[in-house]
Amino acid sequence: VKATSGRQIFPPLHTLRSAEKELLPGFHQFEWQPALKNVSSSWDVGIIDGLSGWTASVDDVPADTIARRFRYDVALVSALKDLEEDIMEGLRERGLDDSTCTSGFTVVVKESCDGMGDVSEKHGSGPAVPEKAVRFSFTIMSISIRADGEEDAVTIFQEQKPNSELSCRPLCLMFVDESDHETLTAILGPVVAERKAMLESRLILSVGGLLRSFRFFFRGTGLDEKMVREMEGLEASGSTYVCTLCDSTRAEASQNMVLHSITRSHTENLERYEIWRTNPFSESAEELRDRVKGVSAKPFMETQPTLDALHCDIGNATE
């Protein structure tokens, strides 16, 4: 309450509540064409258990942890609705007729995932949970549209502060140590499955009063080196294979700091894991390890190979 005029400048609580509901995932209607595989079609989904959507297989360890998340598509819809004004503004600035721009939107999403360190209760009596937490989040980097008959796409929204916590939207929070590969796979498995389903479908969502269609592209580049190793099933950072992008060993890297090229791919890591698991050539542990070049767990999340922390270090050392 302003002292001089006696006017109340804050909106009353109930209006804040309803505004808040609109910002949380699970408020806006949308549909996918074709419908997403293995994902329910209901859109009014709030916070769900982190393990929902995970079908345990025989050799998986049951994940005994607490995790909460939004369904990926529902969270993306909420993020787009949040940017509704920016999208309309972008169309106006580019001189695009808003009524003709109903399809052909492309959204690039950057994913980030990292451990949050020690989150233990110092002297509470809550449930016994792992004392580490991991947060998986995403940022909408850009939205572009290719108008009918046009060759080039026009960017109508670009995130100005892509590394700010204000543009970074949490998707999943879990009590788990980031080096616990099995539990991490179990929790992020469904997220990966949803992401994969969305790549093959288009989102139909009302923006600015008209139904528009969006395609999504995901870039997992917000992950640090430790996390990339974890996701791609590589040995930890003390490994002789120093690099998350190529098969360089420590000895080779120290001899040659310049000629590093990206040689790894997710598919190749999967193949190597199979070799590691089955050992088709009946080799000794040492020979087998040399063959798979440090892939020792099943990679479950494809990360786009870009310059990671290690290569920046190598580059700086070269400088």
Biggest sheet architecture = 9 strands, mixed
Rg estimate, integer Å: 23 Å
Series of H and E elements:
HEEEHHEEEEHEEHHHHH
- Roughly how many Å apart are the termini? 58 Å
Q: What is the tally of beta strands? A: 9
Helix content percent band: 25-40%
Overall 3D form: globular
Strand content of the residues, in percent? 15-25%
The domain count comes to 2
User: Which structural category do the helix and sheet elements fall into?
Assistant: alpha+beta
Protein name: Recombination activating protein 1
Organism: Chromobotia macracanthus
Domain V(D)J recombination-activating protein 1 DNA-binding: 1-30
Pfam family, one: RAG1_ZnC2
Please summarize what this structure is:
The protein is an alpha+beta fold.
